[in-house]
What we know:
mainly beta, globular
Amino acid sequence: xxxxxxxxxxxxxxxxxxxxxTDAEGQIWYNSTRGTFKTALGSYGVWAAxxxxxxxxSALAGAGTQTAGLAFGGRTSPPTNTSATExxxxxxxxxxxxxxxxxxxxxxxxGTQTAGLAFGGTPPATGATELWxxxxxxTSPATMGTARYSLTxxxxxxSGLGFGGYAGAAKSxxxxxxNGTAWTATPSxxxxxxDLGGAGTSNTSALAFGGNSPVxxxxxxTExxxxxxxxxxNSMNTGRRSLSGAGTQTSALGFGGYTxxxxxxxxxWxxxxxxTSPxxxxTARRYMAGCGTQSAALGSGGDTTTQVATTEEWTQxxxxxxxxxxxxxxxxxxxxGYAGAAGTQTATVLFxxxxxxATGATExxxxxxxxxxxxxxxxxxxxxxxxGTQTAALGFGGAAPTVGVTESWxxxxxxxxxSxxxTRHSLGGAGTQTAALGFGGTQEPNTKSSATESWxxxxxxxxxSxxxxxSFPGGCGTQTAALAFGGRANDVPAVLTxxxxWxxxxxxxxxxxxxxxxxxxxxFGIQTAAVAACGNLDTGFTTATELWxxxxxxTNPNSxxxxxxNTVGSGTLQSGLVSGxxxxxxxxxxxxxNGPSTxxxxxxxxxx
Length: 608
């Protein structure tokens, strides 16, 4: 009898806890604690949010990879052809100064971020072809033999294939090869169709799948091309049209599209058959741009009921991403909002705030519970900002009345030090007890400030101001690498999404802001990895939690368990704390943040 070791080169292990190393892929073990046989599955795929396109659109084309993508053309809302071209760096999109020479929608695309090809499109149906060199588009004198739109493509700029589509009167089976200079007709698809998906690496190796055919408006038919002929192979599990594709002839990905409504369905192709992924797109949609590989793909734009800028990244791995989550911590001894805080999830000091009046009460958190200090702030106040650690903190600014007072905490008591140059409350802060940054806030009677000051352990120095004056901003980071986000402005809309980064000298406005505009939120982390949680909306409070990766904000799937405004945060992207605030009244609530992580894709074996 053949043993498992002889078949797979591994023994069945006996363990007390599940292994965590990726070496466990394909390994079978017996978990004696749980009394179960388990394994770690490979090739698990999942979609995660990427940076949004700058121009929301559908019926666009894409090329390149997940970390070096290209999106071009399409239609905006109201339906208007666009020539817009954007480049993706794995995090965010950058609009190119120049776009396609011929604005169009429902076009085909292929190639790389530095050598792309755009072809076909409408209106009217065209065979126009343009070549991309990484900087600009050049119109090719060569046009397709069959003018059409709603087609797809595969390959690279010098060895590409365009196939399927709609020729204006009928669905097309036409297939054409491009060699970098001219189009040449090749054998046609067996099933004429439009709005199909495609994948492949050259004009001799391609895959066509799904679409709208004369036989079915939501086809599942799949065909493989070898350079000489198209061969019908196993169909998709979910018939659909207006879908997107990525990958190669033998390792492809089909995602999104339309059945009787927009779908999030994702399927992988192994060269023989399609397998439905248990994880679909977060946003079901059709007519998006697709590019990349089966293990690292990109889906951008498209439409739900309107054009969207949404980008999602597909990653296939033995590990499964785990979203950040919240849990309850120990309640404050004194319920309050508008407080200051400094420290980590397991060692935070919280001070000041407002209950029914301004307070100087100080409490310390040990990861489980709060302990009240016998020593309060010398100047009781609320709308105060804090930086530093549990045993070496700085509290500055505030109201009751508005002050520029600064106090230093040594773990036991507070000592007054030199005040801010600009008296204000509701400001943002970053840094440590001896190297801090204070920015924004409100100056009386009610003027939002852009003033920024730097603290050297002894005194404050005025430095370059924020680009957007605001009060109640979120803030985190260091004296030389800080982040400011959200807040409240003088103008309407009052609640902001604006995000700025500080390099030690000046502030730079980020092109993308928070997804949920708010002020009075909890902010914590560093300039390149931060969390924005809860906060005040124009009306009411929010539970929204967003993560910052140094370039853009992503909404975490798990929101805070309770809506809080005028709250305060401390900690890091991986381990944070949100304390106090307001719901309908001042609260003592404390919630603990556990940041995003990964785990192996475990599977319990139930049959032998």
